Amino acid sequence: MKMGKNVDMLIDDIVAARLKGASPVAIRTAEAILADTEAEFDSGTSRGHLKMTVQRLGAEVIKSRPTNTSLRNAVKNTLYKIEKIDDEDDEKVLEVIRGNVAAFTETVNTAADRIAKLGANIIRDGTTILTGSYSSMVKGILDTAYNVLGKDIQVYVTETRPRYQGVKMVRELLNLGIPTTLIVDSSARHLMKDVDLVIIGADTVSSDGSAISKIGASLIALAAHEARVPLYVATPTFKFSEETLSGVMIAIEEAAASQIVDGSGLEDCMDNPLFKVRNPAFDATPPEYIRGLITELYIMSPYSVGDYLAKMSGVID
User: Where are the domains of the chain?
Assistant: First the structure.
């Protein structure tokens, strides 16, 4: 089903994995829903039904990546309180959504600034930092440490197959003037002896403190734990999954086999019943491997996420 122009393009980009960084995706989501809401309002095609149209837009975005908490929370924040508006009050629906998107965008940007400052403070001069995949939060931390606080740092970045999100991270760090080394994913354990600190991003954090990040993060965490290298996860609290309080497990998305097979020389094996491909897009880093969560509030213990979510949702005082 075709949605609005902007939401259609957003969903295409999400499904094709062309978007990098959960926080930029969250802002793009809010902006796309707003743009299509304004277009629907101006055209008059949803006259008296704008509220229903907007709710359908939000549902379609969530359906594109149902396991992504930051995407779900972006839609939730964008549509906040519209269910209380009269069904035919299109002007009020548009007004509320405009206000919600402005507030949510400010929240995300403020969180990014705060996380950058808190994270940069834990980096000492002369530190070698390892990270994986692409994270706008981690990039902000490294930028602040190097370019604002003037700390001498070196950064290792895993390539993050099969979509090579780490390559995008390397390019952007180099554009910031930060000394950066690209490494293959499987070399993280071997090179951990040269690393002082690991900082990774997250797509979602569950109530038990586990961080769901791009595939390979848990291997980095395991190697860091073995080498006694502290690992921090940079994540705003809007990525915390309230649903996991009730026992809902975070499903790990399985990406297309073509991401691995195309260009490998095994394309002719796809019809072979003996041949299979597994391509999980994410993995879970358990809380015992995480020194702390760098949030916009403070550096939080992963074991306190459940209490934080329970208080925010009103389960406990």
Answer: 5-113, 122-312
